[in-house]
Design goal:
Elements: E1 2-3, E2 10-14, H1 20-32, H2 38-48, H3 54-57, E3 60-65, E4 71-80, E5 83-91, H4 100-114, E6 119-124, H5 129-134, E7 138-139, E8 148-153, H6 159-165, E9 170-173, H7 176-180, H8 190-194, H9 202-213, E10 223-227, H10 236-244, E11 250-253, H11 262-267, H12 270-278, E12 283-285, H13 290-296, H14 310-321, E13 332-335, H15 338-350, E14 355-358, E15 368-371, H16 377-382, E16 389-393, E17 408-415, E18 421-432, E19 435-441, H17 448-467, E20 472-481, E21 511-518, H18 523-538, E22 543-551, H19 558-574, E23 578-583, E24 593-600, H20 603-618
Parallel strand pairs: 5-6, 9-10, 9-12, 10-11
Antiparallel strand pairs: 1-11, 2-3, 3-4, 4-5, 6-8, 7-8, 13-16, 14-15, 14-16, 17-18, 17-20, 18-19, 19-22, 20-21, 22-24, 23-24
């Protein structure tokens, strides 16, 4: 286990009166970096000099290196609600390109929100205008030469984000394997999704779950501490912090790799438990278990996770569907054995009907198979446990479904500690066969009609979850379905068939078919969280796409991976996109891959960034070809002075 605040991690604190002279020197060095002559610098020296009295009056804060204590930047928030001023924002020249400016700017925005300030005025040095414009500021008249005046509307924090964290930073727990172990012997890992033959090999499942658990670092907009089972590359947390304007995040990795799981191992370390509890912050596990309840002091009520079962979820969907004309629920039949599943699937196939066979629990599409022909039945059944199993009717989108409606959608929401349901949003999922690959959230990702259906139904599911005692994040997955689904097959026993739906309840396309409930954080939830953080720190309404598995053309040791990612991050920034590395631990696997999130303000830029990242990953092999000269890595971000 390591405790690592990140290489050169930044901590922001209030400025002290005895620092006035040193901070004035920092400001003047930052201003002079742009090549102004001595006469100009002398003319603005008085304006840029900080006095001891300024510390409280101008609400000055300092960004300092957490390891060395050196001051790296200074900023001030001035004025009273509803209008304020970003009076100072200067970064030490030797720290340019480390994201210090973004972190200070985000801190000022947070303080402005807390004080009810709705607008900030910025009189910017001409060299910093592009920095502020990229973060949502717009030019307005005014400003004394050579300064340019800009104004920014302080971006609001999403209401669900306030409910999720209580407005506080969080302690994130990457207990992916521990959560799944409550329901199944196989962890249902991403590796098992793609290679069913290894799904019951514990060492493979644990390794794949450790990779996926890195996503837990992104389970809230602003963590204070992250605890992970796998050992992550040094420098990864710094990259996250730069992109998301985090400061001083503690990292504990290499825990919980044994069979007990992450949280039980934390509980076996009294000093770590005292420290994490002593932070006084909410615990956000990937999924709730009895152990996470013991650690956080929020016990898991009996039966709170009942709807993680696909069988129980189907029953709930049928109960709710009558009040939702845009919803059609696939019929489902529980069977005790693989032999019974085969008989039922063959009977349905004789009537020309396709089926889905699935385990009661599983993640990312693991344990779920579409049987498109009798020839596919035998290999599918061999990949599944002996039983019990679930057979479900397969619903195709149908020719009447609009082309703009994606096949796979999800609704994300959360139940807060008081039992209130908060809608997070609807996302478009990327699914290959039945294997989850990633998701896109943001404006236009899901057509309005489909999103409205998903939001209404997902909210009602949340109300039932709250009544069952569940508290936390959840999602409901959907596939698009025909506008007029045919009557269910009579090849199954009559007592297992749901009653036919009245014709009057069938609306125009599209219709959505709910398939499962996930009572935990998920891949799409991470995309929503990153969007919320970028929206509140950079302004605008971002599109965010999670890509959980970008194949790499070569295996990369940790140091080389971070260097390569730093350059790739800069390349994406030049296209107007943000790259957030989400899964950095599999780059040296036998089949190396990387997980990332990409964000942009337009779909065109987002698609271009994805193409850039995929091409860069595939081309990695060329870096190791004889005679290749690696490119020079440029600064990952702009320098900032007012």
């Amino acid at each position: 286990m390591t405790k690592d605040p990140g290489v050169g991690a930044v901590r922001i604190r209030d400025a002290r009166p005895d620092e006035a002279r040193a901070l004035s020197g920092l400001v003047l060095r930052s201003k002079a970096h742009w090549g102004y002559d001595e006469a100009f610098m002398a003319a603005c020296r008085t304006e840029l000099t900080i006095s001891a009295a300024d510390m409280a009056a101008r609400r000055l804060v300092v960004a300092e290196d957490e390891k060395s204590g050196a001051a790296l930047g200074v900023a001030s928030l001035e004025g009273k609600a509803p209008d304020g001023t970003l009076g100072l924002l200067f970064v030490e020249p030797r720290a340019f390109g480390r994201g210090i400016g973004r972190t200070l700017y985000a801190h000022v925005l947070d303080a402005a929100r807390d004080e009810g300030i709705e607008r900030l005025t910025i009189d910017s040095d001409p060299h910093a205008v592009g920095f502020y414009r990229a973060l949502g500021a717009r030019p307005v008249p005014g400003g004394a030469e050579p300064l340019s005046r800009l104004r920014v509307d302080v971006p609001p924090r999403a209401s669900w984000a306030r409910a999720w964290t209580g407005g506080l930073r969080t302690v994130q727990l990457g207990n992916v394997a521990e959560f799944q172990a409550q329901f199944m012997s196989s962890f249902g890992s991403p590796e098992a999704v793609r290679r069913p033959e290894v799904s019951h090999r514990p060492e493979v499942s644990r390794r794949a779950s450790a990779h996926y658990s890195c996503l837990a670092a992104l389970g809230s907009p602003y963590p204070a501490a992250v605890v992970l089972p796998g050992t992550v590359p040094e420098g990864w947390l710094e990259l996250l912090s730069r992109q998301l304007a985090w400061e001083s995040v503690e990292l504990y990795d290499g825990l919980g790799t044994g069979p007990a799981g992450l949280t039980p191992e934390i509980l076996d370390r009294p000093a770590l438990v005292r420290h994490l509890r002593g932070l006084g912050l909410p615990f956000v596990p990937w999924g709730r278990t009895g152990a996470t309840g013991e650690l956080s002091g929020e016990p898991l009520p009996p039966g709170a996770l009942r709807y993680e079962s696909k069988r129980a979820a189907s029953v709930l969907f049928h109960q709710l569907a009558a009040a939702h004309p845009g919803i059609v629920v696939p019929d489902q039949w529980p069977v005790a054995t693989r032999r019974a599943a085969a008989r039922l699937i063959l009977a349905r196939a004789r009537s020309g009907e396709r089926s889905v066979v699935k385990t009661e629990h599983g993640v990312g599409g693991s344990g779920t198979h579409v049987v498109t022909s009798v020839w596919r039945l035998l290999p599918v059944l061999r990949a599944l446990p002996r039983g019990p199993l679930l057979v479900e009717e397969f619903l195709s989108a149908g020719p009447d479904c609009p082309d703009a409606t994606p096949r796979d959608l999800t609704y994300d929401g959360l139940v807060d500690t008081a039992g209130e349901v908060h809608d997070v949003g609807a996302a478009r999922m990327d699914v290959a066969g039945t294997a989850y690959q990633g998701a896109t959230v943001g404006p236009g990702a899901v057509p309005d009609g489909a999103a409205a259906v998903a939001l209404r139904f997902g909210h009602d599911v949340g109300l039932r979850l709250a009544a069952s005692g569940y508290r936390g994040w959840y999602d409901v997955d959907f596939v698009t379905a025909p506008a007029d689904r045919p009557a269910p097959s009579r090849s199954a026993p009559a007592d297992r068939l749901a009653p036919p739906r009245p014709a009057a309840a069938r609306p125009a396309a599209p219709r959505l078919a709910p398939t499962e409930i996930n009572l935990r954080l998920t891949g799409p939830s991470v995309a929503f969280v990153v969007k919320a953080r970028l929206d509140e720190t950079r302004g605008g309404d971002h599109l965010v796409r999670s890509l959980d598995r970008i194949p790499l053309g070569a295996r990369l040791p940790d140091g080389e991976l971070i260097t390569w990612l730093t350059g790739l991050t800069a390349d994406c920034a030049r296209t107007g996109a943000v790259l957030v590395p989400s899964i950095p631990t599999a780059a040296f696997d036998p089949a190396p891959f990387l997980g990332v999130l990409l964000a942009a303000r337009t779909a065109e830029r987002l698609d271009a960034a994805e193409a850039l990242v995929r091409t860069a990953g595939a081309d990695l092999g060329r870096l190791f070809a004889p005679g290749h000269r690696p490119p020079v890595t440029r600064s990952a971000g702009p320098a900032v002075s007012r």
